[in-house]
Amino acid sequence: MFSAFMTNTWIVATIVAVVAGVVGFFVVLRGSAFVADALPTGAFAGAAGASLIGVNTLFGLGAFSLLGALAIGWLGRRNRHDVAVALVLVAMLGLGALFLSFTTEYADEIYSLLFGEVLGIAVNEVAPVAAVSAVCIVAIIVMYRPLLLSTTMPEVGEARGVRAYRVEMAFLVIVALATSVAVPVVGALLIFSLMIGPPAAARAVTSRPFIALVLSAVIAVGTVWVAIALSYQTNWPIGFFVGAMGAACYAAGRGWVALRNALPRRPARLSPAAQR
Question: Which own/partner pairs from 141-147 qualify as long-range (CB within 8 Å, at least 24 positions apart)?
């Protein structure tokens, strides 16, 4: 599990988990879980097309994720947001089915993209994943306040010059990039579990945005590390363990909220001046 050939897996998985936790915090906060599911699932068509023409699947994932994000942002401005996401997802899945019908030579590679592959991280994938992940983290840092304002207090954000449409488009691009780098590790079908479970659990623990964001990344890293260990030992897809643990994180978060609400609250203590 800690052999030299697993080094790339641990490095890339840790990077992916941090990005998923950080970006996923705003995905949960903005109610964009459907987007986090649709983009990697639909972008699988790009991976299938890239495999068909002999190009690195990461480029195909990135290209289709970006195109899907831009299409969702554009259509969502003129239609209901969920309808725009569904339309883009259906279109990309149709293309994916078409690409897959042309060849059966890449069955193992396509399976790993769907469900993740603990031993499938090559040396040449580390640098692109690290670079794209760094872009996502820097973008979140730069957009932290506008994102927070447009999400929690949109009217205040507009008054301060924060344009909701521009923020939405920029955030969709960030989600597209984040999901693209995570797919080779977790899989296209279950990446949203890593971007939803840990952030939802973190939000349940604390209401402070920055602390919840950091805690989300920590939980995501712990989830991926445990998933890698279990996948290595059982030879089961890492996506299964990430999905199961993501659901467990969410359940634990909701359980904590229920327990906290059930506990009797202490009455606020009055100051000496108020008591008089």
Answer: 143/167, 143/170, 143/171, 143/174, 147/26, 147/30, 147/171
